[in-house]
Structures are given as C-alpha cells and as structure tokens.
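Students often ask what a 'structure token' actually looks like in practice. Rather than answer in the abstract, let us consider Arginine/ornithine-binding protein AotJ, a protein of 254 residues. Its sequence is given first.
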Amino acid sequence: MNCNKVLALSLLCALPLLANAQTVRIVTDVSYPPFSKVNPDGSIVGFDPDIARAICTEAKLQCEVSTMDFDGIIPAVQAKKYDLAIASMNITPERAKAVDFSDMYFNIPGRLIAKAGTKIDDKWFKGKTIGVLRTSVQREEATAKWVPKGVKLKLYGKVTDSFLDLSNQRLDAVYLDANVGDEDFLKKPMGKGYSFVGPVYNDPKYYMGSGIAVQKGNKELLGKVNAALKKIIDNGTYKQVQNKYFSYDIYPFK
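Now compare that with the structural description of the same chain:
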C-alpha cells in the first residue's frame, strides 16, 4: 500500500470537516476595565474575554473575540454579525425580547459617584444632571425613579466619556455599575475628590445579574454556554479568573 496516497486521501477527506468547522463569533465592549480592555499590542484582555475563552475551552468551541461599543452590541447580535456577546450585560426583560440570555455569570449593584461628601436624599435630585450609559439598567431605573424628581439624564455610549464630564463639572453625578466606577475612576488620578455617595442600588426589578447574550432561538449554543459556565464555576476555573481581577466575589457562590 502506498502510504503517501493513504495520507493524501485522509487529508482530502478531512478538508470538508475543517471547512465546516464553525467559529463562534463573540463580541465584547472594551471600555469597561477590568471587565475588558485593549492592550497597546491590540490584545483583548479582562474578565469578560477570559470567561469567554474559558467557556469556549470547556465547550470545545473555536471562538473569535471582537470588540464594539456597548450600545451597538444587541443590534449586531440580532443582525447575526456575532453569535454571542460577553459584555457585562445586565439581564432585563426588554433585552430578553431581542436576545436569549445565559444563566447569570455575575451580579454587581449600581452606585452614584459624585463629589466626596455629597449627601443624597430626595431633595438632592431636583435640578441635577446625572450621566448614565445609553443602554443600561441604570438608565432604566433613573428614568423611572429620578427623572420624576427633576433629574436630567445625560446619555453616553462609553462610560469613560461620562467620567471626563464629571471631572470637568459638567455633571453632578454618574450612575453606573459599582465595580466599574471603583476600578476605572475612583482608583485613578481623575477620581481624586470623588466617591460613592448615597445607598447601594440593587433593586431586583433592575439588577437581575449579568448574562451572556446569544442570538435569539439558538438553543444549541445557549445550552453549550450554560453547561460550560456551570462547569467552570464548579471546577474552580471561574474563581481563578475572578480572583485575577477582583478582591471579592462577584458571583453569589453558595
């Protein structure tokens, strides 16, 4: 038997399988360190990309991670430009009409950031301008609870832009995920003189945890993601990733 012919035939037979191997296209938003950012060398790093890669490894999926601004992510998944989004996306009933969500993979409350010493009560809100991400649960909650009290909301595509306006006194406060505010503003030189003010906001109507968004109706991929997520939580991989970026649990471990 000619071994070279056998090898060549084997490779030819394998080509259709390789050609049909599907790459799972994942999108994230890199304006949320430590959840995600782009290094100077162009590499995408952070909690979300690491969780994405851990899930892909566990599920034996070939994955490709790309980036875009947060407010374009759901439309891009709906348009089938991406198969799923791992972008610190809060689960909401409205978003669940457009995409399917995995099980929760972390849950962080909201906080207001303002000048240190600011006292928050019902009277404080009247006439104030508060920055929020355009597509966020913070916007939904603030619209329902604070706009009737006289608040003007200023909407942003990137939370970093709201920090610039806050530090230049074009905003009275920013309302956002607590960890993002802590890591990306309060711990930076720009955040000097500012602090979390008022209570911790964790109304379950708005804070249902963050999930991985999957194209609507893709039950096969959703099942693989949920199974892999459970495995990396159970085998300790999730905690290893978490502890790389946070000094406290962001998942409600039992």
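One point worth highlighting: The first strand starts at residue 23 and ends at 28. Ask yourself how you might have guessed this from the sequence alone, and why that guess would often be unreliable.
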